[in-house]
Design brief:
This protein is of the alpha/beta class. It has one domain. About 55% of the residues lie in helices and about 10% in strands. A six-stranded mixed sheet has the order 4-3-5-2-1-6, sandwiched between helices. The radius of gyration is 21 Å and the shape is elongated. The two termini are about 35 Å apart. The N terminus is likely disordered.
Length: about 280
Amino acid sequence: MKKTFLLVCSLLMGIAFGQQSEKSLLWKISGNGLQEPSYLFGTIHITCDASLSEKVKTALDKTQQLCLELDMDDPNMQAAMMSSMMMKNGVTMKSLSQPEDFKIVDAFLTASVGFSAEMINPVKPFMVTAMLYPKMLGCDIQSVEGELIKIAKAQSEEVIGLETVEEQLAVFDAIPYQEQMNELVKTAKDNMQRDKAELAEMMALYKTEDVEAMIAFTEKSPNVMTSKYSDIMLKNRNQNWISRMTAIAKNKPTFFGVGAAHLGGKDGVIALLRKAGYTVEAVN
């Protein structure tokens, strides 16, 4: 009886440890013809503390190039971003909102970022929301991607991207402009309180390294940009990335850094790489 009890306890501890070991932001990609392993790391695009763990630094040492969502050291990136910020077909924020709501947004932007909605009327509302992130964060913004780039450059390694600026910003043409504007109006009306709370929760969740909890968080978000349109924001892009990632990894061992919300779930990058025949293991 005692042996049986100990066996059950051992099995339960093994299951618990196995589940816990899957909580990681860093994953090793191997097998399926790869001569050397590559690594996959879940980033958070804005944070108060972008310091990298020792295991991440070790993985960077073991790889020969850095691949982010975008080639962030491309000198043409800013110009490409500026040309992709505007809504198509003459749509404006004013045309997407009731007059009283536009006035609220106009006053809110003037107070928050120092310029009025009138000045940036043709800009995609999501891009306007992105301008507010420093205010939502409540601290000096740090960039995980920026820290990764510093190390890559110190090691004289190339920095490349999984998608172009045009491809990434096309996502915000696929998501209805009206939905984007509706969310910006909500942000203005409650002075970012909902957004601040959600961002704080996401940052706390990121520290747990639970990628499955992160994808679940996005699915229940009150912001329809992440919940209702997760296929456009995450799933479709994940699928597009896999063939690119595998070709890159076969060429040379690579450190991939993408938003942590892209990693988990049945349509996440981890599951898709495994489906493609690769071994993907949590690094703890």
